[in-house]
Specification:
The complex is a heterodimer of chains A (323) and B (325). Helix content of chain A is 72%, strand content 2%. By secondary structure, chain A is an all-alpha fold. In chain A, a hairpin with a 2-residue loop joins strand 1 (165-167) and strand 2. Chain B folds into two domains: 4-70; 91-324, MetI-like fold (Orthogonal Bundle). The chains are: A mainly alpha (323), B mainly alpha (325).
Chain lengths: 323, 325
């Protein structure tokens, strides 16, 4: 409970009266419950940290030791090496060769984030500040789309990329048939689609709150919607774009399902998560690779987490129902 | 070292081309739109909305309808089979097991994650190490579920009894005088071990949201109760819990939605084998591994139906809390 920590502050402001009223027995009980509380909090914190710490310590141990002893023995005979990271990043294909997948993750994530922010901001502006019939209905429709699990779109969207669109046997749009690096486009589009409903909704909340006088003044000065959007709205919604951008970035970086389906698990385009899930399935006991590999995939999210914690939390709370 | 960075260049070039093209198209659109001849609100609104509408109609709305119709067709999508795929879902023992597992997930993961989050939030509230303590428990939220699953697979790793254990869980079992076991193969215990991973991840989310709600309780109320001699338990059940109750429900529903769609953990921990599959995993394996598009689509529709009421409740609650602010 909060008792021990807040009691001194409360006593300082209210003088000695409450302390006098408080019996010795209750003071003892309070201190006891205070230390029991601290102990319980500590227990949870330790339980929550140990699994990650164990994996991290292991990733730094020589492969031979990982195979034969527990990571907790590290502290009695510490031996540190970066070999696991070197092997899993740059080694042979069967070791993982994760550097290529790391690049894939970056190449998938950055455009997917930029596209969602751009398309989302444009739509949010039109839905907030341009008058046209049916505006509220369109907004409501996009809002409602947030609840659709992405499982509902996977099969048809994949068919769209691989077979194109045909109506009654007539090919209207051809299959994309992108090869090599261009195949990333499929994943970008998929992630942009899945990120849009949330992006439009959040950015609309933000853009529609901007003061009306701003827009009236700009209109009087003869600025069109295009100019107002780039010169006035974009600079003002930077905080919202950053929060949403971080959320979308981490969502895409950490995603497995969308990548699994739209890259087909192909080494040329698959991201880290797909490769790691695959390694865990086929080489589940190769812990010197898995430990280091897992951390390679966590470096970026952890850096974002520790450097941009405030934005991170905000974006995450807003995106609670996504997916 | 048979690795060359040259292999990566085309990818990076294509990424830069993609981003540049996107920004160029939007920039051009915004410029053209302001030319005097095109300055009509309707037309401009259409231009602003067009990219989003094309993507959403083509990528979500149409596929959603298509999946619903596909769920009424056979595996290749040519022959109409009515509700056969849904009947299959509720009749085949292996799919009933999948539904039971999903039920177990929904029953345990949200409640336990929220409970741990609340307990921890209360315990560390206004303590000296609050922000560090929060970071420690919130950290799993940042990493991928694949990463989290690998972390926990390592915890449950197994070595035969005559060898030294390197999985922490089995080592603890051995220290306590037990036999090491392949925990992830033991049904139905393994489903609970998988649920544990999601609890580990989501408790941080619950903790952060509930901690904010606890801080919003006016200090005078807790002070007054304390002066009246209310103990810690009393304070918690009579003041803290009622005050954070609406937030608690939102957290619970949010985690329930996430739980219903859980896929990555099952995929990485067991691949859905050993009786651990859930709806989202079964949907993937039916539609994309076994080519049973009709049955996969039926599972997707069922998942959608399960999510709808939760999200409606949540939207209602969200709106209510926004009105209060």
């Amino acid at each position: 409970m909060t008792t021990t920590q807040t009691a001194p502050a409360a006593e300082a402001t209210e003088g000695p009266a409450p302390r006098a009223r408080e019996g010795a027995a209750s003071r003892v009980r309070r201190r006891l419950s205070g230390s029991a509380a601290s102990l319980a909090a500590l227990a949870i914190a330790v339980l929550w940290t140990i699994p990650t710490a164990g994996l991290f310590v292991s990733s730094l141990r020589p492969a031979e030791q990982i195979r034969t002893t527990g990571w907790w023995t590290f502290f009695s005979s510490p031996q540190v090496t970066l070999d696991n990271y070197r092997d899993v990043l740059f080694g042979s294909a069967s070791d993982g060769q994760l550097i290529g997948y790391f690049v894939n993750s970056v190449v998938i994530t950055l455009p997917s984030t930029v596209f969602v922010l751009g398309v989302g901001a444009l739509a949010a502006y039109a839905l907030s500040w341009i008058d046209f019939r049916g505006r509220d209905w369109i907004f409501l429709g996009i809002f409602a789309l947030q609840i659709v699990p992405l499982q509902m779109s996977l099969v048809p969207l994949l068919r769209f990329f691989s077979q194109g669109v045909s109506v009654g046997g007539v090919q209207v749009l051809p299959a994309w048939e992108l090869t090599g690096a261009m195949a990333f486009t499929n994943v970008w589009v998929a992630h942009t689609v899945f990120g849009l409903p949330l992006a439009v909704f959040l950015l609309h909340n933000f853009v529609s709150q901007l003061p009306k006088s701003l827009f009236e003044a700009a209109r009087v000065d003869g600025a069109g919607h295009g100019r107002i959007f780039t010169r006035i709205v974009l600079p003002l919604i930077v905080p919202a774009l950053v929060s949403l951008g971080i959320f979308q970035f981490l969502w895409v970086w950490n995603d497995l399902l969308v990548a699994l389906i739209f890259t087909g698990g192909d080494g040329g385009t698959a991201p880290l998560t797909v490769r790691l899930a695959e390694l865990a399935g086929t080489r589940g006991e190769a812990w010197h690779r898995l430990t280091a590999g897992a951390f390679v995939s966590m470096i970026v999210p952890l850096a974002v987490f520790f450097l941009l914690q405030r934005y991170f939390v905000r974006g995450l709370l807003a995106g609670g129902v996504k997916g | 070292m048979d690795y060359s960075f040259l292999n990566e260049l085309p990818k990076i070039v294509w990424m830069l081309i993609g981003i540049a093209a996107f920004l160029a198209v939007i920039g051009l659109m915004l410029t053209v739109m302001d030319l005097p001849r095109t300055r009509r609100d309707r037309w401009q609104a259409f231009l602003f909305l067009a990219p989003a509408l094309v993507l959403l109609l083509g990528g979500l709305v149409y596929p959603m309808l298509r999946t619903t119709t596909l769920s009424l067709y056979d595996r290749s999508g040519t022959e109409f089979v009515g509700l056969a795929n849904y009947l299959w879902m509720f009749q085949r023992p292996e799919i009933l097991l999948v539904l039971r597992n999903t039920l177990l997930w929904v029953l345990f993961a949200p409640v336990l994650a929220t409970a741990v989050g609340l307990l921890y939030a209360v315990l560390i509230d206004r303590s000296r190490f609050e922000s560090v303590a929060k970071s420690l428990v919130f950290m799993p939220m940042a990493i991928s579920l694949v990463g989290a699953s690998i972390i926990w697979r390592f915890v449950f790793a197994y070595r035969p009894a005559d060898q030294e254990q390197y999985g922490l869980f089995n080592q603890v079992v051995v220290w306590l005088g037990g036999e090491p076991r392949l925990w992830l193969l033991e049904q139905p215990l393994n489903t609970f071990l998988l649920i544990l991973v999601l609890i580990w991840v989501q408790a941080g989310f619950a903790m952060v949201v509930l901690s904010a709600a606890i801080k919003a309780i006016p200090a005078e109320i807790t002070e007054a109760a304390r002066i009246d001699g209310a103990g810690a338990w009393h304070l918690f059940t009579r003041i803290t819990l009622p005050a954070v109750w609406p937030t608690l429900l939102v957290v619970l529903i949010t985690i329930t939605v996430q739980t219903l769609k859980v896929f990555d953990i099952v995929r990485t921990m067991t691949g859905g084998n050993y009786g651990t599959s859930v709806i989202a995993n079964e949907m993937y394996s039916q539609a994309f591994q076994q080519g049973q598009v009709g049955q996969g689509s039926a599972l997707a529709v069922f998942l959608f139906v399960l999510v709808i009421p939760l999200v409606i409740v949540q939207i209602r609650r969200n709106r209510k809390s926004r009105e209060l602010v």
